[in-house]
Structures are given as C-alpha cells and as structure tokens.
TrEMBL record:
Functional summary from the UniProt entry: Plant non-specific lipid-transfer proteins transfer phospholipids as well as galactolipids across membranes. May play a role in wax or cutin deposition in the cell walls of expanding epidermal cells and certain secretory tissues.
Name the UniProt record assigns to this protein: Non-specific lipid-transfer protein
Every Bifunctional inhibitor/plant lipid transfer protein/seed storage helical domain range: 35-120
Record keywords, A-Z: Lipid-binding, Transport
A GO MF label: lipid binding
Record family assignment: Belongs to the plant LTP family.
PROSITE patterns referenced in this protein's UniProt entry, alphabetically: PLANT_LTP
Record organism: Pinus sylvestris (Scotch pine)
C-alpha cells in the first residue's frame, strides 16, 4: 500500500509539473508567488487532497505554512487561487479536503477558496 501511495504522489507531481508548464505558457497571473511554488508546497499534501489519506502527511502542514508566510498581499492570494483552481480541476482534488486544509494547518493568509466556480479576481 505504501508503494501505491508513493506512485500516486509521483504521478500527481509529474502531472502537476506538466500542467503548470502548459498553463504558464498561456496565462499571466500577477503576484509574487508562482504556480510552481504553490505546486511544490502542495505536493506533500497530495495523498490527502486526492482522498487517499484521512489526514495530511507529516510534511504537508509545514510546507503549507511556508507558502502561507510568503503570501503578503491580494495579488499573491489571487495567484494562489488561480493556480489551485486550475490544479484542483485537472487532478480531481477533493474540494472538501482542500477546504479543510487551511484550518488543519493553521494558516491565515493562504485561506483562499478552492472551487471550479471561484472568481479569483475577487479574492482579497
């Protein structure tokens, strides 16, 4: 089972990197935080976000808190929102688990909605 989880994580990461490269080729998002940074921070949370784990992995929350500490202003939150919106749709992230992650990890600035319907330009 551990091998399966590692494989799922590896496939998730590779898929995210490919998608990020495709997305960044055609989308310009203002903000100091890149989608690559967001994806890197979320990678330890993949098994939880995909529904394969009941709780986030030990490395998940420290990684999320590190990203949270980089979010300084509205453009950062909007950049994170746009990235998460795209990634969540592409990889079947469980939206309920994604919504719980900021509370579980005790983050404040990174608390952006993750939904296919969110208008990230209205995130402040």
């Amino acid at each position: 089972m551990a091998v399966y989880k590692k494989m799922v994580e590896a496939v998730f990461v590779v898929g995210l990197v490919v998608t990020v490269m495709n997305v960044w080729g055609g989308v310009s998002v203002e903000g100091a935080i890149s989608c690559n940074q967001v994806v890197s921070a979320m990678t330890p949370c993949a098994t939880y976000l995909l529904g394969n784990a009941a709780t986030p992995a030990a490395a998940c929350c420290p990684s999320i808190r590190g990203l949270d500490s980089q979010v300084k202003a509205t453009p950062d939150r909007q950049a994170v929102c746009n990235c998460l919106k795209t990634q969540a749709q592409s990889y079947g992230v469980k939206l309920g688990k994604a919504a719980n992650l900021p509370g579980l990890c005790k983050v404040t600035d990174l608390n952006v909605p993750i939904s296919p319907n969110v208008d990230c330009s209205k995130v402040h």
